[in-house]
Amino acid sequence: MSRLPKALRSVRVRLLVIALLPMLVLLPVLLGGTVWRWSGKVDAILVNKVTGDLTIADQYLARLIENSGERVDAVARSVALQTALEDGAIDAFLEKERDRLGLDFLHVSRDTKWPVIEDALGGNWRSTIDVFDTETLASLSSDLSARAKIPLVPTRGAVPTDRTDETRGMVIHSAAPLILPDGTRVALAGGVLLNRNLGFIDTINALVYRAESLPEGSQGTATLFLDDVRISTNVRLFENVRALGTRVSAEVRAQVLGRGEIWLDRAFVVNDWYISAYEPIFDSFGTPVGMLYVGFLETPFSAAKRNSVITLSLAFLFIALASVPVFLRWAGHIFRPLESMTRTIDRVESGDLSARNAPSDVDGEIVQVARHFDSLLDRLEQRDRELRAWGETLEQRVEERTHELHAAKQRLEQTTERLIISEKLAAVGEITASVAHEINNPVAVIQGNLDLARSNLGDEAQRAEEEFRLIDDQVYRIGVIVSKLLHFARPEDFSGADRKVDPSQVVRDCLVLTRHQIEAAGIVCTVEATSTSKVHISRTELQQVIVNLILNAVQAMPAGGRLRVATKEDEGQIILAVEDTGTGIDPDTLGRIFDPFFTTKQAQGTGLGLSISRQIVSRAGGQITACSTLGAGSRFEVRLPAQENLA
């Protein structure tokens, strides 16, 4: 403490720190932690929302694929198709059905390189996603390859590539079994090109992000990727230009296409950050060939969080500016009297015995101390005047009564010492008697209301008899303490005597008093109270010893354990044992546990519990011992002479 700067040793500075620390340090830390947790929960909610959005989009795409297969299968099983086959008008019929069903191609196929066709040739219809190269598209329709071609747009963060165009086409590929008039089984294959299919992607976006499903300023987007290239999207490069041909970032591509995993996080989409969800799309061979994406703009949510933080910060600053002056004013009422007393002490030390604090009429503990200090200074000044008068008188008679002066001086010193001691004892006795009197009044009210409760409850009081008895014991304990205070104040009016108590009953009472601490620590307690003799000791003092030992045992078992409390008789002595299965005490510490102020609990203990317990037991003619095994537990024994062995 002496190494601290003088400014930090000032009472004023310390009081200001105490007053301002909760507001300027603890509250900002708490506020920051709360905002951090809130921000994390908001991010989790946004991820959950985009997960649900992806589920809707995925279900719509799956349903679209299934519908395509069902339509192709319906055409393959139709009577009209069989009639067209028999009449040789199959091409015109298929062209008409293609237009009616909104397909981009519909033809009879025996190409077994596609698993979809193989399944149809095997007798089962199937519909899935496949990727056709330029030649395959051109063989199906003259304009499909042109529709599928999408120029690549350089995109920040994408995997580098030498390609300039995406010429492949992602199609919904459906096939159903078809029996020709000659009995040959072939496949009726049809599908829809998804490249530049803006109606398909706009429908997904409308389903996922309905009106008012997002806050003002945000917007929902949906995209279909072929490999990492956007082939159908409502994401805009400019106001009316869709971001076809732009590519996904390398990080997303590696997770979704490389590892086949779903991406649920924020991502940079074309020119802004979005809360995004990507899932891989697999073709009929089980290979990831593209991605389905949904997401919404992150900016409104980030702005909302930022505005919330700014609002909370401004509110905190306003509260701080409004409350700090109040705290400083309250602190001033405390340190101003202390500073006044410091100045008074400095003046007295310099020889000015007339210096006084002259406190105001405001009540308070510090003001009372200042008044008492002034009273002591008055007495000191009075003694100083008396001593000076005696000195002047003695100086006049020094020559003729030297030996009398020496004797008078000795008598004066003895009288002064007795006077000071008498005044101190009188003051302490007066305060003690006053405190005892003030305590007796509420104790009498408690006891009276307790008796009234018993009377009003009647037979119902039996249900709480144990609790009533414990309250009686504690009221009696308070009465004993008050009696001791009065005995100190007026010893000639009081006399006390030891009481005979049953240690087994006291142990049971103490376990009731400490039941909450034992249960809260998860400790299993065993009681073996077999002694029947009584001992000469104050009941409250024995309770103090037992409770101290039980609480020490509980604190030695922070992770739970077993506690055993036992009493027994052995050769005219009552042995009270408290055993635990806690951490134990090392041999060096075990030899010092009964020393005053020695503690291993740091700021949690005073180091007086076991020392006071040993004094109490010693006054009763007994002894207390301890043994312990490190890591296995400790045992404390209290030995007291039984009543029959006392004179």
UniProtKB/TrEMBL annotation:
Give a yes or no for keyword Repeat in this entry: no
Q: Which Pfam families match?
A: HAMP, HATPase_c, HisKA, sCache_3_3
Q: Which chain regions cross the lipid bilayer?
A: 309-331
One annotated GO molecular function: phosphorelay sensor kinase activity
InterPro entries, A to Z: HAMP_dom (IPR003660), HATPase_C_sf (IPR036890), HATPase_dom (IPR003594), His_kinase_dom (IPR005467), HisK_dim/P_dom (IPR003661), HisK_dim/P_sf (IPR036097), sCache_3 (IPR033463), Sensor-like_sf (IPR029151)
Q: Keywords assigned by UniProt?
A: ATP-binding, Cell membrane, Kinase, Membrane, Nucleotide-binding, Phosphoprotein, Transferase, Transmembrane, Transmembrane helix, Two-component regulatory system
Where the record annotates domain Histidine kinase, the positions are 434-644
UniProt EC number: 2.7.13.3
Q: Name one GO cellular component term.
A: plasma membrane
Q: What SUPFAM superfamilies would the database entry show?
A: ATPase domain of HSP90 chaperone/DNA topoisomerase II/histidine kinase, HAMP domain-like, Homodimeric domain of signal transducing histidine kinase, Sensory domain-like
| Segments forming domain HAMP | 332-385
Catalysed reaction equations from the record: ATP + protein L-histidine = ADP + protein N-phospho-L-histidine
Superkingdom? Bacteria
Q: How does it sit in the membrane?
A: Multi-pass membrane protein
Q: Where in the cell is it found?
A: Cell membrane
Please give the name of this protein.
histidine kinase
Can you name the source organism? Roseovarius mucosus DSM 17069
